[in-house]
Structures are given as C-alpha cells and as structure tokens.
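Here is one chain, start to finish.
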Amino acid sequence: MAADTDVLARSVRAPILKTERPLLVVIVGPTAVGKTSIAIQLAQRLGCEIVSADSRQVYRNMAIGTAQPSDEELRLVTHHFIACKDPNELYSAGQFEQDANQWLNAWFEKHRTAIMCGGSGLYVKAVLEGLDDIPSDLGVRNALNERLEQEGLATLVKELQSLDPKIVDVIDLNNPQRVIRALEVCLASKKPYSSFLANQMASRPFDTWIIGLHRNREKLNDRINQRVESMIQDGLLKEVKSLWHLKGENALQTVGYKEWGSYFDNECTLEEVQSEIQLRTRQFAKRQMTWFKKMNGINWFDAEQVDHIHKELERQCVIRGWTLPEESRISE
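Its structure:
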C-alpha cells in the first residue's frame, strides 16, 4: 500500500508539494504551425489547463478570423484568455502579464503543471520575463494620430525605422496602432521602444520549458493558404460584417479583418481579398519566427514529429521526479 501511495504522490497530476517548483510548458511558433493541437495533447497527458497567449484570440465575436480553438477543442481542455474581452476594449501585454500571472499563481498553489500556448511574442515575454514600465504620452499619441490622417501610415513607418530599426523587425508595420504606440514611446522617452523590451528578467515562482514549433517554409505556407480558404468558407465575411462598425478599434487592426475595406467599397473581388489575407498572413508568420528565433531558451521541434515532443515531455517529468499515467506514456 505504501508503494501505491508513493506512485500516486509522484504522479504529475497529483497536488504539488511545498518543496517543489511547478512547471509552465510554453508552446510558441508562427500562425498555422499547429500549436493548438499539440498544446491540447500535452495538456491531456499532464491533466492541466491552457493559458492562451494570443493578442487577438482574447476578443469575443472574432472566432473565425483569429483561428480561436473550436468548441470541440475547448471542451477537450479548459482554455483561459479566449474570447474574454470585447473588441472595443483595449488590452495590452502589460495587462496580460498581470492577469496571466495572477491565474498561474493561483493554479500552481495546487497543481504541478500548466501550459501556455500562443504566437504573440510580446505576450509570452511579458509572462516569462516581465516588461519594463513603458512610458506613455497622450499628447504625443494624439499628434501622431493626426499625422496618420494627414500624412498616411508610410511616413510614420519611415520615421519609426529611423528611430528604432530593431523594433521594425518584430511589430506589424501594417497596424497603425502598433506603429503609433512604438513611435509614441520613442518620442516621449527619447529612447528606442525596443530598449524597454530588453529589461532584466523578472523572478517567477515557476520553472519553464519552452517548445518552439516550426515547419518547412513551403508546408507552412500551404497550411496558411488552406486556413484562410477555410476561414472564408466558414463565414469570415459574415463575421467581419458584424464587426465592421468597430473597424477603427485596435482589435480589428489585424490580418484577416483590415483587408476587407476595398471589398466593401466594391473595388476588389472576394478572391482578391482571400489572396491578400493569405499574403499578409505569410508575412506575419515570418515576423513571428524572427521574434522567436531571438528568444533564449526555446527548444525547437518539427511540428510533424509529435512523438519527439511527447518523449521530451516525459523526460522533463522524470527530471522532476514526476510520472505520467501509464495510459498516456509513449512507447519506445
């Protein structure tokens, strides 16, 4: 009986002991690489829940265009920070840092593991490392918004490239709000926006194991193209129409939504909108990979070699003296 009790105590699903540090398994990578599927598989094996680190999936009524987990996937494993904010609400990486860490701290009081999954690099960084107190200046922001109306986005992008050449590789230069925010910080602080992202790592009461997923470029592009085609078939046009009255909000300044203006003005076809979304999504995936390749501590895996990920998960558990349930172990 004592042996049986010991086995149960060492199970990764057993309550955490006061002498242990919990483990946050982080899954990152470009859009359409397959993060959600693998996150769900690992969460089921560990018996834990998933924190979504996606700056657009956080919004309600945007399920199709942001590729939120399906209802079936949400039933398989509980997800957090999915469809929890209205599209007209501003939600920042700093707010996510506070909210996600508050949830993790409460969860880890009783559990050994959790999973964080997402492609928003700044959100992931915020939780793992913390963010500096980034300055803001409403006067500068309002002036930049006026310049946007008068001069256009290209002029602001050119200025940002001059003031902070590092940040232009990792933010969406087609997103006016992101460009204006970065410029606001540069102008208000007289320092590059990127300098505020290179802070000392914050202390966290948990360990991390970071999985980076990649695929062959051609295969990833095919998956992106197919995903966008499926979005159109699943009703993306109807979803965008229902949100178009909010087109000026930050939530809608994202790939999959902002490309529809010309279509609604009868200046292009549905097929042309689809092609534009596919192109911009491929460009976005490239920027994501640029960000994650610069992150430290990522263990890269081919997303098609799922067994390798599962076996490494078992090894991470063994290192900590935890065992996975018999039925969820991967045979050699």
